[in-house]
Amino acid sequence: MTAAHTVRPTRDQVLKNLVIANRVLAAYEVVDGWGHVSARDPDDADSFIMSAVRAPALVRERDLVAIRVGDGEPPAQIKASVERHIHAGIYRSRKDVTAVVHCHAEALIPFGVAGVPLRPLAHTDAFLIDGCPIWEIRAATYRDTMLVDTAELGDSLAATLAQAPIALMRGHGATIVGASIHEAVYRAIYARHAALVDLAGRSLGTVRYLSTDEARSAADSTVKTFDRTWELWSTQHGATSL
Amino acid sequence: MTAAHTVRPTRDQVLKNLVIANRVLAAYEVVDGWGHVSARDPDDADSFIMSAVRAPALVRERDLVAIRVGDGEPPAQIKASVERHIHAGIYRSRKDVTAVVHCHAEALIPFGVAGVPLRPLAHTDAFLIDGCPIWEIRAATYRDTMLVDTAELGDSLAATLAQAPIALMRGHGATIVGASIHEAVYRAIYARHAALVDLAGRSLGTVRYLSTDEARSAADSTVKTFDRTWELWSTQHGATSL
Amino acid sequence: MTAAHTVRPTRDQVLKNLVIANRVLAAYEVVDGWGHVSARDPDDADSFIMSAVRAPALVRERDLVAIRVGDGEPPAQIKASVERHIHAGIYRSRKDVTAVVHCHAEALIPFGVAGVPLRPLAHTDAFLIDGCPIWEIRAATYRDTMLVDTAELGDSLAATLAQAPIALMRGHGATIVGASIHEAVYRAIYARHAALVDLAGRSLGTVRYLSTDEARSAADSTVKTFDRTWELWSTQHGATSL
Amino acid sequence: MTAAHTVRPTRDQVLKNLVIANRVLAAYEVVDGWGHVSARDPDDADSFIMSAVRAPALVRERDLVAIRVGDGEPPAQIKASVERHIHAGIYRSRKDVTAVVHCHAEALIPFGVAGVPLRPLAHTDAFLIDGCPIWEIRAATYRDTMLVDTAELGDSLAATLAQAPIALMRGHGATIVGASIHEAVYRAIYARHAALVDLAGRSLGTVRYLSTDEARSAADSTVKTFDRTWELWSTQHGATSL
């Protein structure tokens, strides 16, 4: 049996799933007025699709635009988020990545500013075993900016991310990647889960994180249930009424 | 007068109550994309009923399947959760148990990973006086897994649970039992309550837990009100629209 | 001008306001499956009105029953909460009290078990300046119970409450009183507010509580706005659909 | 291209946006039964518009009244909040201010009573770099009051605010200003965000705040996105059904 999320989706399915993903991430407080989720174009690996400038909860299929991986540029006349360079930089360096979430989740920012990487305390968050680097924009630019608004900054973020599933961005938020939209959304929601569990655990005493072996085993088993979480999230929060 | 929850239910009532229980537990954030609640089959004590692979908030009566207590196996051709062995193991060892909840509640995981058993601070949580052991899967298996996916692991969890109402599972979640669906759901919701109250209490100073005598008295009186809490929860969250 | 809440209500208004109060307190998580709010009968000062055994969110006008202040007994054949003795005890000792809320609010229990009385950090919570004693049931009875299920225990709680607006009950919850239903509901909601603000304030450092003079002045001004908060709460949460 | 929030609105637009702002601030728990948002009258710079005495979530366009900046007085016969003097004092001293929010947000009070000014940990909260003074009413009056109920107290608060975007008010709440309704609402919602992020960050360790240069750059970029956040908030929470 092949799970739905492992079948290579058509472009039409990607468009529909991106709209659902925007709404699900908003419902789970991963994104707010900002934040975005993108997917590599299944018909053109040198292009990715994300929404134009619009709050995720309000994104409709007609708000989606294709952007070039090579330089992060949208079609002429199209308004696109300056932070498309986050996505373009990662798609350039990570051939395995098919979807990217960028967010300012309130639960993740404290870890970035305190210099504390997320680590897995529960099997649902096991993917964190593959790393959670913290990107420092000051290491990448002399300009006084917090935004990833150039191809160079996108490359710098991607270099810090390396092969990890998530990078925290000091003073800004986080960027999460996946081999599918299902996986990127899953990881974004459970990165938030890991942060909340860790904060509470620390107030009780010394916590025991998953071992590397435990985490790799658990990560394998959660991947097999992406159809279940996606069915829940899309049923409860994915509807577009606009 | 006999309270409804103390009358032995028919199989049809068990099926309906399992659907309600799934939705109530989701509404109270005891379960999320995973987690499950089962009940012993009133017509066959060697069998228990739980949902197939589906997020609890979406479970319908037609998703329920009967599984053998003896070996945890479902009928041929039926897809069942690998973690059915949690339920089977407990039904084998605890004749008094009629319902089991397994969950990854965000509020409970910190206690398991910090090695801090839940204890009752309020009379609503008095059932915790009968113990809250923490199960360590490493003590039971050499395999690098976090899942209770064999009959042996189910037996190990049941051995740690012993006569307690709840066992925390390090790095995973918790399993809660009851003499009825009403009781298992009650205990799952109030285990979460106990965890949140304890976290806040510790930040204020030294807390006073219920004494054993106080807790036993209070546990007796809360059992008498299961009809009231069930009426509330099933009215507010039990509806199936699918 | 006379504010609506200061006009002596008719019995019919009291019944309607009690139903609204039940639903508002449930919406603000002051009460859950248990808890109750009562009012002195405007036509009979030796009687008070509260719901029979039913979760507050589900209470309807026909669930309300009159109970004698003198001995806490309901009419023959009527099922009433064992904890009616909380209310009866207070109505016996406090002629100024017209309404009583009893609750197990998750936000208040930590203060009772840690032995930390609530104090006002904000002018909305200024009524706390008149005291927040913590009642210890062990000081009142040799029985191993947590419930106020006798007239003697009701008198003991009332003696600890004395002239205060609220008493915390160790291991149990809290009881809040007022000169009107509006005031008792207000104080119950803002006792919870005070608890949450205090918990957060302590984690930042040393906090400055209102002085006695500041609090008395602020308490006088909040009383003048009970019509405003009641309009909000009853509009948003008071509807009965049952 | 000119963003909508930078175009000088008509008086009719101001009235509509004030109603929306009231509901949005209530949905984000910035305001509760009290709190208010005002705007300078675009047709009369010596006058500002705010709701009469009514909970923000219930405010309708017909509840709005014009008040004189000079002395904080409403038209004859009109009932107005005593705290209109907060707004009048600020409009007198800050010609750049077009909108003012006053609130008792539960998330902000702990910082005021602990004497801890808010500082930006994330680029969304960068406006805080321009200061977050804490106003002490005791420094301004000999009366035992917590309310800003005279023109003199309004002037005192405005003097403490000086050129900052927000002032915390010890034992009371906060007042936030902006060059537009969009900006004042944005800052009020993200002051709350900054407070919650800071509380969590402190429990993890030493946090790194934005540098002055980072914050000024980030504040400039968030101003450019006020249309996006306003579209989200007004679509989700701005509807008037009353």
Helix/strand layout:
Four copies of one chain form a homotetramer.
Chain A: H1 11-27, E1 36-41, E2 44-51, E3 64-68, H2 84-93, E4 99-103, H3 109-114, E5 134-135, H4 151-161, E6 166-169, E7 173-178, H5 181-204, H6 212-223, H7 226-237
Parallel strand pairs in A: 5-6
Antiparallel strand pairs in A: 1-2, 1-4, 2-3, 4-7, 6-7
Helix pairs in contact in A: 1-5, 1-7, 2-4
Description:
Chain A has 242 residues and is of the alpha+beta class. The first copy, chain A, has one domain: L-fuculose-1-phosphate Aldolase. Helices cover 38% and strands 15% of the residues of chain A. Chain A has 7 helices and 7 strands; from the N terminus they run αβββαβαβαββααα. In chain A, strands 3-2-1-4-7-6-5 form a 7-stranded mixed beta sheet, with helices on both faces. In chain A, a hairpin with a 2-residue loop joins β1 and β2. The mean pLDDT of chain A is 94. The interface between A and B is medium-sized, with 33 and 31 residues.
In short:
The structure is a homotetramer of 242-residue chains. Chain A has 242 residues and is α+β, with helices and mostly antiparallel strands. Helix content of chain A is 38%, strand content 15%.
